[in-house]
């Protein structure tokens, strides 16, 4: 927030300054029932340094929500989107800042509350140049369920619904032979990840100092099994 909006936000209680997800009941007529509006959850903070919170807030807004259609219905996945901007069509990452958005997993507990149950590593880049948290937060807002795959041939196995998570992201990997990050070397697009490859929301060490000469935290997703050249 900026200007007057920033002043209003600074005056709010701390939990009201976090991004949140709400639910609204749909009546039998298909219209929203405004008498039943609830806050389902507060999005956990991504940034902890005061300078980052002042500039970015505690996290970026959730821009995509998906639920399991075929499997367990007590799982919800959220996709964040980096901070909005408008640099012009000819500029790199013109409309959103990259490397600042997470893909989050939530589960419904017996009391009916959505509780955070982890995060998906998106892409290889680990924020070593941006600073803490040193996680693979390259989500570009899109998140969806998909079928699992046969162990041989990588064909879709329709007996395994909702066993893959599809995520849109920035810098998912680098072109073969690339040693530096450039427009031509970076590969952006859609990442497929096993539904069970869930990492901690904030792994131990993600907020510590990190040398740019060594890799960041090990990944639970694709960064754990594929080479990363940078």
What is the topology?
Blueprint: H1 4-11, E1 20-26, E2 32-42, H2 50-56, E3 62-67, E4 75-80, E5 103-108, E6 114-120, E7 139-146, E8 148-149, E9 156-157, E10 164-174, E11 186-194
Antiparallel strand pairs: 1-2, 3-4, 4-5, 5-6, 7-10, 8-9, 10-11
Describe the fold and architecture.
With 230 residues, the chain is mainly beta. It has helices spanning 4-11, 50-56, and strands at 20-26, 32-42, 62-67, 75-80, 103-108, 114-120, 139-146, 148-149, 156-157, 164-174, 186-194. The longest helix is centred in the N-terminal third of the chain and has 8 residues, at 4-11.
Q: If you compute it from the alpha carbons, what radius of gyration comes out, rounded to the nearest whole angstrom?
A: 19 Å
Number of domains: 2
Shape label? globular
Q: How are the strands of the largest sheet arranged?
A: 3-4-5-6
In terms of DSSP E residues, the strand content is: 25-35%
Class from helix and strand fractions: mainly beta
Helix content: under 10%
Q: What is the chain-wise order of helices and strands?
A: HEEHEEEEEEEEE
Total beta-strand segments: 11
Q: Please tally the helical runs, counting DSSP H or I stretches of 4 or more residues.
A: 2
Mean pLDDT reading: 80
């Amino acid at each position: 927030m900026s200007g007057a909006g920033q002043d209003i936000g600074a005056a709010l209680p701390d939990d009201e300054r976090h991004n949140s997800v709400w639910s609204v009941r749909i009546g039998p007529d298909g219209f929203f029932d405004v008498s039943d509006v609830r806050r389902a959850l507060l999005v956990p903070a991504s940034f902890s340094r005061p300078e980052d919170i002042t500039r970015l807030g505690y996290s970026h807004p959730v821009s995509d929500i998906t639920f399991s259609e075929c499997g367990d219905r007590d799982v919800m996945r959220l996709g964040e989107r980096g901070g909005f901007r408008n640099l012009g069509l000819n500029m790199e990452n013109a409309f959103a800042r990259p490397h600042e958005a997470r893909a989050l997993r939530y589960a419904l507990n017996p009391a009916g509350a959505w509780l955070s149950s982890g995060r998906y590593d998106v892409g290889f880049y680990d924020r070593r140049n941006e600073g803490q948290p040193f996680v693979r937060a390259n989500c570009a807002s899109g998140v969806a369920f998909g079928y699992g795959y046969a162990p041989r041939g990588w064909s879709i196995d329709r007996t395994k619904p909702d066993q893959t998570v599809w995520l849109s992201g920035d810098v998912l990997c680098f072109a073969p032979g690339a040693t530096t990050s450039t427009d031509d070397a970076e590969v952006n697009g859609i990442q497929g990840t096993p539904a069970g490859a869930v990492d901690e929301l904030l792994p131990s060490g993600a907020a510590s100092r990190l040398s740019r000469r060594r890799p960041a935290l090990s990944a639970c997703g694709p960064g754990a099994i594929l080479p990363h050249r940078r």
